[in-house]
Specification:
mainly beta, Tumour Suppressor Smad4, 4-stranded antiparallel sheet, two-stranded antiparallel ribbon, 30% strand, Type VI secretion protein, PAAR_motif
């Protein structure tokens, strides 16, 4: 099976979790990659499991990445990998030319 686009610092994620006020959803945001500081993909730090996903409400991180590719002992994150804000948060975008398998 082909790999998925590698996720990096500042790539977009989707967060459909309802706001605590009940007036909408969190919406899209960006990844703040810090877990693999010496690993770069297209001049951006690589994103890994546990990296923060900027959201209107705190606590959103990358929940899961590749089961076979690791950077600094953490699973490499890819487009469509899930985030911790449920239901259905995921990484929306990744590199156009670097792909990571499972």
């Amino acid at each position: 099976m082909p790999g998925k686009p590698a996720a990096r610092n500042m790539d977009k994620h989707v967060c459909p979790q309802p706001l605590s006020s009940g007036t909408g959803v969190h919406g899209p945001g960006t990844i703040t990659a810090t877990g693999a500081a010496q690993v770069y993909i297209n001049q951006q730090m690589a994103a890994v499991e546990g990296d923060m996903c900027i959201c209107v409400e705190p606590g959103n991180t990358i929940k899961q990445g590749s089961s076979t590719v690791f950077f600094k002992s953490k699973a490499a994150a890819r487009q469509l990998d899930p985030t911790t804000h449920n239901p259905g948060g995921f990484i929306m975008l990744g590199s156009l030319n670097v792909f990571i398998g499972d």
